[in-house]
Structure formats: C-alpha cells, structure tokens
Amino acid sequence: MKFFLLFLALLSIDLSVKWYLNIANIESITLIPYFLDYFLTKNTGIALSLFSSSGNFTQILLLVFIFLALTFLTHTFLKTQDKFQKMGLLLVLAGGFGNFIERLLYGAVTDYLHLRIGTTSLFVFNFADFLITLGAILIIFIWIREGKNV
C-alpha cells in the first residue's frame, strides 16, 4: 500500500507541476548559472526529441510501445520481492506514467529544465524524466550488486 501511495504522490507532483507551468506564463530564467535554466518546451518525441518530427502513425505506434513497456514494468513490479528493485521500478513507473498520460492527453510532454554546461546545451527534461533516470540507476546498481549480467 505504501508503494501505491508513493506512486500516486510522485505522479501527482509531476502532473501538477507540468499543469501549473503550462498556465503560469513564466519567462525563461537561469536557476543555476552555467548549469540549469527554466525553459518551457513541448516534446512530441521521446528521449532527446527522437521521433519528434514524425507523423501521426508513428506517434500512435509510440503510444502503444510506451503502454506495453509500462505494462511490462508494472508486471515486473508486482512480481519482484526485492524492496530496492521495487523502489527503482516505482520511480520508473511514476515518471513513465506521468509522461504517458500527458502524451496521451496533449500529444506532447512538457519539459522545463534545461541542463547545460556554460553555453553548451545538453538537453531539456522534467521531473518525470528525473524519476525515470533515478529509478533506472537504482535498478542497474541492484543488478551490479547481485552480479547479474546487464
């Protein structure tokens, strides 16, 4: 039950922040000089804007693929007994569902944190992307700890 409540809390935070930023009309600002900016953008693609200029068929295929991946991860979450792996999967699922819901409703995902080094732009991401990355790192750490082949 505690995992489900944490999932709902993280999902709610993600969707609430995206909703607020979409209606707030905040200008782009530097949050951490030479490193992090607030920059609102819409991403119709996936990581690093892959497939962002694709047509409707590809977008539908993308939604189906993401749904199947989330279904598989949910099944894995329900099966696993390791609490750390469960936590990693929960983070990936909360972020994944946050981005999936927004993509399903609006056709794009709201990204708002622009990571850069000086004037070199790296990528723009959101809280859900952060959760997915953190969860994936945790799962990989567990695999390494247990000696599993990746």
Cα gyration radius (Å) = 16 Å
Question: How much helix, percentage-wise, in residues?
Answer: 55-70%
Shape: globular
Q: Quote the beta fraction.
A: 15-25%
In total, the number of strands is 4
Q: Alpha-carbon distance between the termini?
A: 30 Å
Q: Determine the structural class based on helices, strands and strand pairing.
A: alpha+beta
Domain module tally:
1
Number of helices: 4
Describe the main β-sheet briefly.
Answer: 4 strands, antiparallel
Kindly report the average pLDDT value. Answer: 91
How do the helices and strands follow one another from N- to C-terminus?
A: HEEHHEEH
Identify the strand order in the major beta sheet.
Answer: 1-2-3-4
Unreliable stretches: none
List keywords for this structure.
61% helix; alpha+beta; globular; 150 residues
Task: Note down, in words, how this protein is organized.
- With 150 residues, the protein is of the alpha+beta class.
- The chain has one domain.
- Helices cover 61% and strands 18% of the residues.
- The protein is built from four helices and four strands, in the order H-E-E-H-H-E-E-H.
- The protein has helices at 2-24, 56-79, 83-106, 127-146, and strands at 29-32, 36-43, 109-117, 120-125.
- The protein has a four-stranded antiparallel sheet.
- Strand 3 and strand 4 (120-125) form a beta hairpin.
- Helix 1 runs parallel beside helix 3, helix 2 packs antiparallel against helix 3 and helix 3 packs antiparallel against helix 4.
- It is globular.
- The two termini are 30 Å apart.
- 21% of the residues are buried.
- The model has no long low-confidence stretch (mean pLDDT 91).
